[in-house]
Amino acid sequence: MLYGHALRNAFLPMLPVIGLSIPGLFGGAILIESIFAWNGIGRLTLEAVDRRDYTLIMGTTMMFALLTMMSNLLVDVLQIMLNPRLRSQVH
Fold first, then answer.
1. CA 30 from centre of chain
2. pTM (2 decimals)?
């Protein structure tokens, strides 16, 4: 019972930090995939920059932006669900 109350209150300030670190993971994918020669979206983006494939660069940038916006939206919704003070302001 104590863990449910304590973890819920401790999770509230950590939630925005976790949500804002997700875009850093996308940027890190480009670096890690190029270092270890793994095939993935990061390496694809880097090769598109080398080839000057503007359509692919715009597509991957749009995908990274959409994933960032979705993670921010998810963090906001989770904060409203978990924090009763915010829940009362929404209604």
1. 15
2. 0.74
